[in-house]
Amino acid sequence: MDVRTATNEQILTWTLGRSVDESECDAANLVSEISGLATEYSGVLFRVAFSILRHASDAEDVVQETFLRVLKHKKQLASVENRRVWLIRIAWNLALDRKRRLRSTPLVEEAEEILGNCASVEASAETSLDAAESCARILRVIDTLPRKEREVLRLSAIEELGIPEIAAILKTTESGVRSCLFRARQRLRERLETEERRRQP
Amino acid sequence: MNLEHDALMIEKEIDAALKLLNETQPPAQMASRIHLSLETTIAARGQTYRGPLFWVPATCAAVAAVLLLVFFQTHWTRGTQLPAVETAKIAADSVSQKIASSRPESAPEHSHERDASITNVHQKPHRRTHAQYRHAANLFNYPLTRQEKLLLQFAATAKPEDLRDLNPEYQAKVEAQQEAEFLAYVKSGTQKTKTSPETN
User: Fold this and answer.
1) Which of B6, B31, B46 sits opposite A27 (nearest CB)?
2) Mean pLDDT per 10-residue run, chain B (200 residues)?
3) Looking at the predicted complex, does its ipTM rise above 0.90?
4) Could you tell me the sign of the dihedral formed by the alpha carbons of A51, B26, A113, B13, in that order?
5) What is the pTM of this model?
6) Which residue of A51, A69, A99, A137 is surrounded by the most CB atoms within 10 Å?
7) What architecture (CATH level 2) is domain A1-103?
């Protein structure tokens, strides 16, 4: 049997050593399709969820839940144009929903989470922890920004997402995203300056 | 100068924080865990999908059995259950028989025995009619109409003289008596008309 030209049903029959019915074949197709999506997009979905939750296991739960939602609405999958944006939107909403239910964690714990899941730890442990704490502090200030501004800022942190994709995720225009991003950075800078002044004696 | 330096530092801090956020990596084996959970969910759905195929005939059979039970029960009830009118007549009949058996022929109309019998009948109607109403405990009985209820109430509480009117034998007897009286009256009338010209 030529595997390249064989149908899924033939491959399954060959690998399992028995004939397969239509439902088994459909289920196998569905698993392979969604597994392909999971392999391709789980990284970006994790980062999106982590930018909101700042807890690795919660973010992983969100990613898992995202693919279960995809499975639940499998009929829509064929009609989706941009699957990446569609998946990110699902993960984004799930993460926001989970964030509402979670209690706030201490700053040190958040910093440790960031440090634990960060790929580039080049400096010493102390420096890394300082950087992670600074990151956690800034992310907390981002949380205090107006909803639209903080959403744009969080998504802009993920390099894989361009302005058009952020606009599609947040259901707004590209110019709206740009102006919102500008205002968000300005406001964030002002708040950090105020915070800095308060800290200094 | 110092303020500008601070602003620049803050911008750098913001960029560093956002960069750090971008560099976060998913935990090891996350993708395989997702694959596993997907396969488990699909397998569970497949099992639950097969379930109804086995349950459909069983459910249909159970529903058919219940419908048959209801049908036969209703028919049995309708066939064996006496209508309320019949029940009332039986009750009336039994009361009149009881009165007749308890009263000696020589006894006066308002004797003590008769009074006691009537009191007994009125105080304990359930004893008198218990066997006749036993079938009414059936679950699938149709509810009684207002007229039937009134008739039963009448049979349980009415005076024996009133109940006697429901007895067909008594009614036939009364009708026969009335007819005889009428015939006698007619007979006597014709005799009078025949005799009157003679007298004149």
Assistant:
1) B46
2) 70 83 82 82 66 73 90 65 61 62 52 52 49 49 77 80 81 91 86 57
3) no
4) negative
5) 0.54
6) A51
7) Orthogonal Bundle (1.10)
